[in-house]
Amino acid sequence: MKYSTALLGVPVCAVAIAALLAAPAQAAAPTFTVSPGGAWSGARAADSTVGIRDAVSNQVTLCTGLTVAGSFTSGTGLSGTGIGALTSIAFTGCKAEGVAVTVTVHTSAADPAPISLTALSPADPAVVTGQAGNISLTLDAANGCHAEVGARTSSGGGPGFTGIAYRSTDARLSFAAGGKGLFVQSATPQCNAGYAGPAWKVFDRISLGGFGDSIAASSVIVSPAQRISSP
Description:
Layout: H1 5-22, E1 31-35, E2 38-44, E3 50-54, E4 60-72, E5 75-79, E6 84-96, E7 99-105, E8 113-120, E9 127-135, E10 137-141, E11 146-150, E12 160-167, E13 172-174, E14 180-181, E15 183-187, E16 206-207, E17 219-223, E18 227-229
Antiparallel strand pairs: 1-5, 1-18, 2-4, 2-17, 3-4, 3-16, 4-6, 6-7, 6-8, 7-10, 8-9, 9-12, 10-11, 11-15, 12-13, 12-14, 13-17
């Protein structure tokens, strides 16, 4: 008996169409509204504990000061990608287990760290989160330790990225926002001093968010205040 190929093709097409209709729609990337935008700068918030944490040893290099400068693009319906940039990040008065540490973040107006926002915080719609890329830093301790920090060397090295969060209600920018994009690329033997000083080893993940328990950690208050919302 012969069967019509046209009839045989009908259920196949029907199944394919049904599968396409059943596939979940991909959520559109959020857009953002920024006001007033432009250049801004910020200094350590009065309630902020500032530090740089080694996520492997859990040692936190505590700092007394933090200043950040950058800019945001002004407008509505903006893509989060490249919506701003950091042009200066300075951690000052830092110590690891009592040993003085000089932190040098290689970010400048000539070599900025582009900001990309990706989401609103589910817990607080006034908080937007994202990442700042093109981040690298050196850590130099008084005991002779020297460590280079950037992207994971197994992924090619070079600059990495840090998580950031911004809260419009108090104009607070924080580095305590996830983002696992900084790692120790190289370290001298003095960097493995444990409780006698820095405890940084190659491949250790580094967080600029210090203890990272809330948006208050490693945060600055931005002026002029920026309002960022979505949509």
